[in-house]
Amino acid sequence: MGRPGYVTNPAGPHIWDSLRIWEILLFVATLAPATIILLGDLPVRDRVIVAVCLVSILPLYFVLGRPAIMAENRRRGAVYIALLILLFIPATFITSDVTFALFGLCPQCFMVFPTRQAMIAVIVLNLVPAISYLFLEPEPSWFGFLTVTLIVIVFSWVFGVWMEGVSRQSRERAELIEELMSSRAEVSRLSAERGALAERERLAGEIHDTLAQGFTSIIMLIQAAEARSDPARHLALAVQTARENLAEARALVAALSPAPLDGSTLDEALVRLADRLREDMGMTVTFTVRGESRPLPPPIEVVLIRAAQESLANVRRHAAASRVDVSVVYGPETVALEVHDDGCGFDPAATGGYGLRGMRSRVEQASGSMRVRSSPGGGTTLIVEMAE
């Protein structure tokens, strides 16, 4: 994560850009007095010594200080601060004009050390020009010396505490950002898994409602044909069912609407399903429409036709019914499918098959509701209600 206090943004600039303001301050604080002193009236030897000492601070920072700050290497940082002070001392004893460099040097102490250790280094840096002032000035002012020294030290202490607080807040922010990024990655992973699971459940429901039911019908028709002397009618129905099953498979692969709905209204599709059950089983099957029939959104039509397919398939396999009534009720803002048979019935609480469970899941995912009323020997009524 880098040095505490400097947040790495993976989508943004390099982490070194966070230190740019302190690097600029160090450049200005060292090069400005070095340039002024070089153009001044000091002896050439003194000017060269001061300029070399100040300018040498910059490569020292890049070679030793910068890596120590980034790696939080206190030992290497201590060597860097010690060499920095050693370069600053001779320049200070030559001329007091170099004290301007303290504006860039003091922040370096707080970037390397905690506040207490940094304050020691800052006091040493500020005592150097103060001592040189006492020795070089013919008549030094003790009051001015103490005042300036205390002001600089107090300012450095306040600056250090502020900088440490900012560093701590930035570190906490960096940790929070890292936690949020981890949480986002986890949410994305769970969302992808949930999407994959939902897609598997959807495909399982589609296969159960289409191919599995079609194959069951074909098997029952072939078995009925084998038991009769004239199997032509049942074989013809088996062929027709196989063709429709093939159409369902192609529609499933192409992610189209259910084949019974392809190119027709919901009412027409339900009439075909009712007629098919009548032809297959030889029972009485009625279809009625209550209310004003109207086009429905495709997702609602898909849910209703799948519910009708599943319900009629259960009647064919389990109900042993003699009569089935299918109806669609169009309300002002709702539409309901009702399928009632007079078969053997069952206990809904004791049924754990995939068909009803998958049908309920499909209905609830489309914000609908499903009710099943049945009892052993009392027939079964399925009601699916959808809001438009």
Characterization of the model:
The chain is built from ten helices and five strands; from the N terminus they run H-H-H-H-H-H-H-H-E-H-E-E-H-E-E. The chain is of the alpha+beta class. It has a five-stranded mixed sheet with strand order 1-2-3-5-4, covered by helices on one side. Helix 2 packs antiparallel against helix 3. It is rod-shaped and about 130 Å long.
Overall average residue pLDDT: 78
Strands in their spatial order, largest beta sheet? 1-2-3-5-4
Count the beta strands: 5
Outline, from the CA principal axes? rod-shaped
Instruction: Please give the alpha-carbon distance between the first and last residues.
Output: 52 Å
String of helices and strands: HHHHHHHHEHEEHEE
Put the structure in a nutshell.
With 388 residues, this protein is an alpha+beta fold. The protein is 66% helix and 10% strand.
Topology:
Blueprint: H1 20-38, H2 44-71, H3 74-94, H4 102-112, H5 115-136, H6 142-226, H7 232-253, H8 266-281, E1 284-290, H9 298-319, E2 323-330, E3 334-341, H10 354-365, E4 369-374, E5 380-387
Parallel strand pairs: 1-2
Antiparallel strand pairs: 2-3, 3-5, 4-5
